[in-house]
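Q: I'm a student working through a structural biology exercise. My instructor gave each of us a protein and asked us to get a predicted structure, then write a short paragraph describing it. Mine is ABC transporter permease. I'm not confident about reading structure output yet, so if you can add a plain explanation after the tokens, that would really help. Here is the sequence I was given:
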Amino acid sequence: MTIQNSLAQPAEPGSTRGSAEKLKVFIYRYGLLAVLVLMILFFSWQQPFFRTFANAMFILQAASVVAVIGLGATVSMTVGGFDLSVGASMSLAVMAATAAMVIGDLGGAPAILIAVAAGVAVGLFNTFLIVYARIPDLVATLSGLFLINGLTLLGVSGQSIAEGMSFNGNVAPGKFSPLFGWLGGGRLFGIPASVVVAGLIFIVVIVLLNYTRWGRAFYAVGGNPIAAAAAGIRVARYRMAAYLISGALAAIAGVMLAARSNRGDVNVGDAYLLQAVSAALVGYAVLGANKANAVGTLVGAVFVATLINGLTMFNFPYYAQSFVQGVLLVVALLMSYTLGPRRR
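A: Happy to help. First, here is the predicted structure for ABC transporter permease. I'll explain a few features afterward.
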């Protein structure tokens, strides 16, 4: 029996079966939020520094990068796809932005535009494979992941980019611009600039998905592309738009990360692929949405950042943190798929 049926035909008040169904519905809708609150209370109790404003900003700053790249993955999921190349897009954007400033001696604004253009180019490539070559999303974006990683390594001969580096036998002439540095270390009304940027992007994505025709079309395409096409929705165009947005947001996340670290490391985005996927899938279990959604992804990003921050304070080995994230993902999926309404 599904939760929807149980809600339509409530059990006898006070019965054991009725209480079990209510508990099931509560866990399905609010279980992840309850775990997040309990986790914050536990870490605050055990580690006094955890509950400070400075640490809260540190958590939000870490969550901002995951949230932006996760929101891109979320948009691709709304059309029934899954962009596995977001980590590679992020790495490409990091290297493109830092190379433009340090090696090309360009300013911060051109470097950001070049990085975003690189992300959009990845989106176009994915669109070609998925929409026009008709390769399944996962296979297409997985191949894109390897291709883009290889291209990034070839572009800089596998070396990292930093001020004063040697390139082709000469010292690179450029430096990181103040505008670029502000994105990584600047503040606006006491809030880190990266958090402000992530907040603005979150608002844009939530408005796009929930309050526009484009958002409704995205979900329609993801729910049933044949029915969507029969209703007059241009499926190919919306799938293309979703992957372009995914690539662009991955690139912006790369810019935010490079601005914070003031260097460009090859394959730096690989670690963020797992976190972005975790945030987007964990979001399924938030408030019983049972679908890709911006609010859930934001909660998932904060959840992952809070968990990593707390584990780090407990000197939890870094090599075990992936295992803990895996456990979290399994629990969230159990809440969404096992306790949630059955899918036909």
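A: Here are two points you could use in your paragraph. Residues 1-8 have pLDDT under 50 and may be disordered. The chain has one domain: 34-337. It's a good idea to check both against the output above yourself.
Q: Great, thank you!
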